[in-house]
Write a structure and sequence with these properties.
Its main location: membrane. It is a multi-pass membrane protein. Keywords: Amino-acid transport, Cell membrane, Membrane, Transmembrane, Transmembrane helix, Transport. The chain has about 450 residues and is an all-alpha fold. The protein has two domains: about 325 residues, Up-down Bundle (Amino acid/polyamine transporter I), CATH 1.20.1740.10; about 110 residues, no CATH class. About 75% of the residues lie in helices and about 0% in strands. The protein has a two-stranded antiparallel ribbon. Strand 1 and strand 2 form a beta hairpin. Helix 5 runs antiparallel to helix 16 and helix 17 packs antiparallel against helix 19. The two termini are about 35 Å apart. The model has no long low-confidence stretch (mean pLDDT about 85).
C-alpha cells in the first residue's frame, strides 16, 4: 500500500490545519499590537510571531516526537500533571475560552454593526445559539474536516483577507504612529507575551489528535507517514500564519490617522475595513470573521469532545459535543470583555508550561530524557507562571512584585524563563545523583530506554 500523498493533497491538508488555527479570535490581536507599538511594530511583532506563530511548528514537531498526543508529552513530567494540564488545556481551548471568545468576536464584528446596538443581549443570545448549533452540526463527523475546511472555507476567507491587505498596501491609511504605553520600552517581551493570546501553541497540542484522525481518514496508516504529513502541513500553516499576522499588524499600525486609537483589535479591523473598502468593507470583514469563526469553533469543539470521550468513554463524542456546545453558549453570553478578562490568568499559566514542554522534548536526548529534568524544569516554570496568573487576576499584585521582582524579566511576564533554567539544572543534578534511567528518542519518534 502506498502511504504517500501528492503535493496537492498535502496542500489541502495544510490549508485545513491553517483554517483550524486561523480563527476570528486570532486576527484581533496583531492589529492592536500594530496600533499600540507604532514605529516599534516590527520589534513587537518579532516577539509576537515567536509565541504566536513560530512555536506552532515546533509544537507540532514536539507532539510527533512526544508520542502524538499532549497527554503522552506531558506524562514525561508525571501522569497526574499530564491529566491536570491536559484537562485545563482542552477546557480553555473549548467551552471556557476559545469557543465563547470566537463566537463573541464574530457577533461584535460581523453581526452587531449590521443590526445596531439596541437589545444586544437578546441578539447575542439568538446569534450564539444558532452559531453554536451550526458548529455542532459541522463537528458531527471529524473525517469530513479536510473537505469542509481545506477545500471550501479556507480559500474563501483567504481571498477576502487578501483583498483587504492588498488595498491597505496600495493605499495606506496613514503613517506609523508613536509607540504607546508598554510599547515604549520592553517592546520585544511585550510582543512575546501578547502572542500568548492567539493560543496557537496550545491549539497545536489540542488539534493534534483530531488532525491525525483526519489524515488516517484519507487512508494513511503508517505512523511515520502521518508524522511526516503533520510536519509538512505545519510548514504550510506557519507560512500562512506569518503572512496573515504581519498583514494584520500593518493594518493596525497604519490605521491611526484614519480611525484613531481603539480599545481592541476587533474595532481596528472593522473600522479599517470600512475605511479602505467603503460600505462593502463592513460586509467583507464580517464574512471573513464569520468564516474564520466557524473553522475555529468546529476544530476546538471537535478536539475537546474527542478528548473527553477518551477519558470518559461512557459519554459518547456526540453527547460531549452537545454538552460543550451548551457550556459555550452560557459563557458566550457573559460578553466578550468578561471572557477576555477571565482568560488572561489561565493563558499566563498554561503558555509557559507549554513552551517548556516543547523545549524539553527537543532537548530530550541532550539530557538523556531523565524524568527529574522534566520535573525540575516544569516546577521552576510553574511557580512563576502561577505568580503571573495571580497578578493578572488581581490577587496581591503589589505583594507578589515586592517579593519576586529580583527574578530577571519578572516585571515583563517572562521570569519563568530564568526559573525554568534553574529548575532544569537542579533536576539534572538530582537525576544524575539518583542514576535515573536514560530515555532517548530516535528519528522515528520512538523511545529507546537505557540507551
Amino acid at each position: 500500500m502506498n502511504d504517500s500523498l501528492p503535493f496537492s493533497k498535502i496542500l489541502i491538508i495544510g490549508l485545513m490545519l491553517f483554517a483550524m488555527f486561523l480563527g476570528a479570535g486570532n486576527v484581533i490581536f496583531a492589529p492592536i499590537v500594530g496600533q499600540q507599538a507604532g514605529t516599534n511594530t516590527w520589534i513587537a511583532m518579532t516577539g509576537f510571531l515567536i509565541t504566536g506563530v513560530g512555536l506552532v511548528l515546533l509544537a507540532i514537531v514536539a507532539l510527533t516526537r512526544g508520542g502524538g498526543t499532549v497527554e503522552k508529552l506531558a506524562s514525561r513530567v508525571h501522569p497526574k500533571f499530564a491529566v491536570v494540564f491536559s484537562v485545563l488545556l482542552f477546557l480553555a481551548l473549548g467551552p471556557f475560552y476559545v469557543i465563547p471568545r470566537t463566537t463573541s468576536v464574530v457577533y461584535e464584528i460581523a453581526i452587531k454593526p449590521v443590526i445596531g446596538t439596541e437589545n444586544t443581549a437578546i441578539y447575542l443570545f439568538v446569534f450564539s445559539f444558532l452559531f453554536l448549533l451550526f458548529t455542532i452540526l459541522l463537528s458531527w463527523n471529524t473525517t469530513k474536516f479536510v473537505d469542509r475546511l481545506g477545500k471550501i472555507i479556507t480559500p474563501i476567507f483567504g481571498v477576502l483577507l487578501l483583498v483587504l491587505v492588498i488595498k491597505s498596501i496600495a493605499t495606506p491609511m496613514g503613517s506609523l504612529g508613536s509607540p504607546q504605553g508598554e510599547y515604549v520600552s520592553g517592546i520585544f517581551l511585550k510582543g512575546f507575551t501578547q502572542g500568548y493570546y492567539t493560543m496557537d501553541v496550545l491549539a497545536a497540542f489540542v488539534f493534534g489528535g483530531i488532525f491525525i484522525k483526519s489524515i488516517k481518514g484519507l487512508g494513511i496508516k503508517s505512523e511515520k507517514e502521518v508524522s511526516k504529513l503533520f510536519v509538512k502541513a505545519g510548514l504550510i500553516t506557519t507560512v500562512g500564519l506569518v503572512a496573515l499576522q504581519v498583514s494584520m499588524a500593518w493594518i493596525g499600525a497604519t490605521s491611526i490617522d484614519a480611525i484613531g486609537y481603539k480599545e481592541n483589535g476587533g474595532e481596528v479591523l472593522a473600522q479599517s475595513s470600512e475605511y479602505l473598502l467603503g460600505q462593502a468593507g463592513i460586509y467583507v470583514i464580517g464574512l471573513v470573521i464569520l468564516l474564520t469563526g466557524v473553522t475555529t469553533n468546529v476544530a476546538c469543539l471537535g478536539a475537546v469532545s474527542e478528548y473527553f470521550e477518551k477519558i470518559q468513554a461512557s459519554v459518547s463524542y456526540k453527547k460531549w459535543l452537545i454538552v460543550f456546545g451548551v457550556l459555550s453558549l452560557v459563557f458566550t453570553n457573559f460578553g466578550l470583555n468578561t471572557i477576555l478578562t477571565m482568560a488572561s490568568p489561565v493563558l499566563l499559566l498554561l503558555y509557559p508550561l507549554a513552551i517548556a514542554l516543547i523545549g524539553l522534548i527537543f532537548a530530550n536526548n541532550i539530557f538523556g530524557g531523565h524524568q527529574g529534568v522534566y520535573v525540575g524544569t516544569i516546577t521552576g516554570v510553574g511557580i512563576v507562571a502561577i505568580l503571573d496568573a495571580l497578578k493578572e487576576a488581581g490577587i496581591a499584585p503589589g505583594t507578589i512584585n515586592s517579593y519576586f521582582m529580583f527574578i530577571p524579566f519578572f516585571e515583563n511576564g517572562a521570569g519563568w524563563i530564568v526559573t525554568g533554567l534553574v529548575g532544569f539544572a537542579v533536576g539534572l543534578m538530582i537525576a544524575k545523583g539518583k542514576r535515573e534511567p536514560t530515555t532517548l528518542i530516535n528519528n522515528a519518534g520512538q523511545e529507546v530506554k537505557d540507551a
